[in-house]
Automatic annotation (TrEMBL):
Residues 1-295 form the Luciferase-like domain. The keyword DNA damage does not apply. NCBIfam families: F420_Rv3093c (TIGR03841). PANTHER family: 5,10-METHYLENETETRAHYDROMETHANOPTERIN REDUCTASE, PTHR43244. It comes from the Bacteria. SUPFAM superfamilies: Bacterial luciferase-like. This is F420-dependent oxidoreductase. Keywords: Oxidoreductase. Pfam families: Bac_luciferase. Gene3D superfamilies: Luciferase-like domain. The keyword Phosphoprotein does not apply.
């Protein structure tokens, strides 16, 4: 199992500069890759450039970036720009469809044909990521590329069948977010089949998973707050209902806010789709994910009650 670290994933109440501390610690502990997620607070490429200043070795991946808010050239240029200002280290790009709440509610742009836009964008970005200096910046343009290719992987965040097909056809890696081992097993099967249809080697399969080793109460609350946003999402709500958290699922469907949902979720819910508990329990859960077919765990460390996720990242540091 490979391990990487997510410096920032979804919006919460953590200090806005906490991702810099998480990344610096992950690099110091020897993690090979750090992800710079994008959301209402952080632009993924700006954050990746900042992470490059506080890390020395780790590969950086920007995103997932919503494909409805940036054109393919901007995505490839962003990665090449970050590579150029961070000493030429590999920079990856992760793509996703995001949600209507983000695309329309934050960016004010329509989220139409998201699966089709993901497919179109992934194919174009893959080609642009490998363009060499001197080539047109895009086909037919009089402008020539001046920056070397960024050298990192193309990742596609996927859950539905069309997004999985896009990942199989174009990506080096497919990303899942907040999933159980049972979901991994099902989605790994779909990815295997899609890669066979596409005539390509199967992309690596990674998952962002909340992680808290020997969690403080504040850490548990932070993890549960992240889970709360998934209680109304098809494919996730069923997992939580089957795990015995149907009351919280019903509350979410009725429009309860995050604070109410966190109060309704028992601590055990945190371990349903993540790595939460003492070290032995977490290692056993890692084995469950490995048996289900996961190639890489991207740790999303809880930082409330554990600044920079130091306790968790140290306990799970690469051998």
């Amino acid at each position: 199992m490979d391990f990487s670290v997510v410096a920032v994933a979804r919006e919460d109440d953590s200090p806005v500069d906490e991702p810099l501390r998480v990344a610096a610690l992950a690099d110091r502990l020897g993690y090979r890759e750090v992800w710079a997620g994008e959301g209402p607070t952080w632009d993924a490429f700006v954050l990746a450039a900042a992470l490059g200043r506080v890390t020395g070795r780790a590969t950086l991946t920007a995103g997932p970036v919503p494909v409805s808010v940036r054109d393919p050239y901007s995505l490839a240029r962003g990665a090449a720009s970050v590579a150029a200002v961070t000493g030429g280290r590999p920079i990856g790009v992760a793509l996703g469809t995001s949600s209507r709440r983000v695309v329309e509610g934050v960016h004010g742009l329509p989220r139409t044909r998201p699966a089709a836009v993901l497919e179109e964008t992934a194919g174009t970005v893959r080609a642009l990521l490998h363009a060499e200096p001197g080539e047109p910046v895009v086909v037919g343009s009089p402008f020539r590329r001046r920056l070397p290719p960024p050298g990192g992987p193309l990742t596609v965040a996927a859950f539905g069948d069309r997004a999985i097909a896009t990942a199989a056809a174009h990506a080096d890696r497919m990303l899942l977010d907040v999933v159980s081992p049972e979901q991994v097993r099902e989605l790994r099967g779909k990815l295997d089949a899609a890669a066979e249809r596409a005539g390509r080697p199967r992309p690596a399969l990674a998952a962002w998973l909340p992680a808290a080793v020997d969690p403080a109460p504040e850490s548990l609350t932070q993890v549960l707050g992240g889970i709360a946003g998934y209680l109304t999402v098809p494919g996730y709500r069923e997992v939580f209902a089957e795990a015995g958290f149907g009351a919280a699922v019903d509350l979410a469907a009725a429009g309860a806010d995050r604070a109410a949902l966190v109060r309704a979720l028992p601590a055990a819910a945190a371990a349903t789709v993540g790595l939460v508990g003492d070290l032995d329990a977490v290692r056993a859960r890692i084995d469950d994910y490995a048996r289900a077919g996961l190639d890489e765990i991207a740790l999303v460390p809880a930082t409330d009650g554990d600044p920079a996720g130091e306790r968790t990242l140290t306990a799970l540091r690469p051998a």
